[in-house]
Amino acid sequence: MRSTNKKFISALACASAMTALAIVDPMGVTKTHQVAQAATDNVPARSAGVDVSSWQSTNLNQQAKSGAQFAVVKVSEGTNYQNPNAQGQIQSAEQNNMMTMGYHYTHFGSDSNRAVQEGNYAVNSAQQAGLPQGSYLATDWEQDVNNNTNGSVAANTNAITSFMDTVHDGGYNPMLYSNEWLLKNKVDTNKISEKYPNALWVAKYKTNGREDNPDFNYFPSMDNVAIWQYTQNWRGQNVDGNVNVVPLSNKTNTNNNTSNNAANTNNSNANNGQSSSQAPARPNTNKPAQPTNKPSQPSQKPSTNTNVNSDWTKQNGVFVTGGAINLRTGASTNSKVIAELPANSEVKYDAYRTIGQYTWLRQPRANNEYGYLVGRNNGQAWGTFKEGSATASKPAETKPANKPAKPTNKPSTNTNVNSDWTKQNGVFVTGGAINLRTGASTNSKVIAELPD
What we know:
The protein is an alpha/beta fold. Helices cover 15% and strands 28% of the residues.
């Protein structure tokens, strides 16, 4: 998941209470905002939901009409970015009688001190965007250039818990979002779930294509899951699709003991939008309903790419790699590698998009699928763009020294190359998938399959 407000008060929204909230923004300026209680503050299990960011419109009418009953809105990232569409998206969700939640895209990795700073920033951002007190506010913790997940499991877990504690103390319900692999290998989810039961939001996809409804044969086999993100293209709308597997409720309680693990959702009194020591209600501790005859999980997990959506600039072009570059299944360094393209590979692409420091190129492939590779890093080209390409007017530059890691096994030496070669520089565009080999022989080792 990644990194215009029209205010229309419907009859249902008019019935919601509006309360003044004093907020101190990151610059130290006190402002007064109006925080509305969500038109819907609970949804039953197996409800459909979407998560949105600045890549999506502030109008969620289409998602609501398609059956979405809740919306998780990105409110902030790091300590210096707020989603400019957050307030409009929250208002639109409320007007469409959707339960609203929020998420913060983290940069703290395994740093607990920074996690507290980001937690405070997320709470302030959620308040300024009008996210009702007691709503779920998740930390989006995934591998990114700004978020290193390679710390120890203990350090990662402590940092995540510090963020969740800060969110909890700020009057919101904490939740943790990540993909299945990271949660199973880089985080002690048992420790987190002891303090915050049923607070996991897990991404696991059956396919990178369109999915209209969840296939529970692919449900991640984990305890304490509250929400499952099962697609990046829900019902063809290029928005992430989710399903909650336990009932969800945006409510607060009067229990001031933040270490209390018991679920307490009986007190539905709002705290008038004030950040206080009142702890939000814990999610109930019932485990998700599992399929009774659930088949075994696939041996190869589909890649989880939460960053790909409809905000791509269409443009046909040719990119010539300046060094070895990974071709991936999604526009994320966390996505599965299809092949390592060697230097001077020509790649035809039909669209590009900048996400953070990277400009990604999209390569059409067979069966209506795509491959993705980085074309620029902080504006620096990792190769050359031929005339008519997305950035052909910019000077071609070679890729920086931090190239993708080479295979651990060195390719075999080519014994076929000798002096009987005719020297000629030229460009060859593949007319179909062709193997690049270590030698001029079909018996030589394959370096990569160059796509069409």
